[in-house]
Hints:
The chain is of the alpha+beta class. The protein has 7 helices and 15 strands. It is 21% helix and 31% strand.
Amino acid sequence: MPxxxxxxxxxxVFQKSLTVEFASLTGAGxxxxxxxxxYMGENTLDVSTGLTYPSKAERARRNPKVSLLxxxxxxxxxxxxxxVLVYGHAAVRDKDLQKNTDRYVAYTHKxxxxxxxxxxxxxxxxxxxxxxVTPLKILWWENRDLDAQPQRWDAPxxxxxxxxxxxxxGESLGRWKEAPQDWRAGAAYAAQNLGxxxxxVVDDEGYPVxxxxxxxxxxxxxFKLEIGKGAPAKVAGKACLTFHSxxxxxxxxxxxxxxxxxxxxxxxxxxxxxxxxSLPPKxxxxxxxxxxxxxxxxxxxxxxxxxxxQPVPKVRLPGEx
Length: 321
């Protein structure tokens, strides 16, 4: 049970959601949002990212203003839960990569579609950086009514805001996966198959603010969005549009993200589609996807560990340490 006095209706959402939309800011101040698996700490709401693709953590370390949107109830078992938006302060944890990896393996090894001997071969995936988010403000929409004005909770005054672990030495290795040259094919697929997206803008206090839109339609230069009357931030300026989907039993996920600008009338103009990593469901597709990614990510594993002055962490199942 967390020590922060969250309203009780939040707890099932925080405890049972399979995904959360994690929003951070690029060096240029643009918002970008990806779905991640959420976890609960004592005073924090946590997510993780791979050591071999640390961009999310690097953004959060550089600018700790982040947000978490719990808007996808699929697989949670919850009936009509509120949509919950958390504004928070991020602290990046990567000074003990083995501890991070052990924690992630303990949480996830039973849900991945691979036998134990295979798990040990995909350390490029299990080696983790954790991002701990201290909630500062929470908005929520009862009955998932995006036209209603949200209710609000604020953290108590004087709450401690922990610092991130020191940044690694040397230059970042950059992105590991090239972005698609043409965003339109992905846009057509997302519009038809991945449901309503998450629009993220930046508010007047400099926070990335993700919000689920009511509807979206593909148009020539992007998407026409219907925004709820209870939107938590002005819809204008630099923006990100995130489509994602996963089955009730989390055996895979599809993610497609676009960045660009949004106008007050709800027109989101796409500038580009960043590279993303979707995980196919169980079966040959999942195995092929992991093996293919490993060819690119394995060389980065040793380099990222070395940047932090640590050995490459090992995949150890619970009971082996």
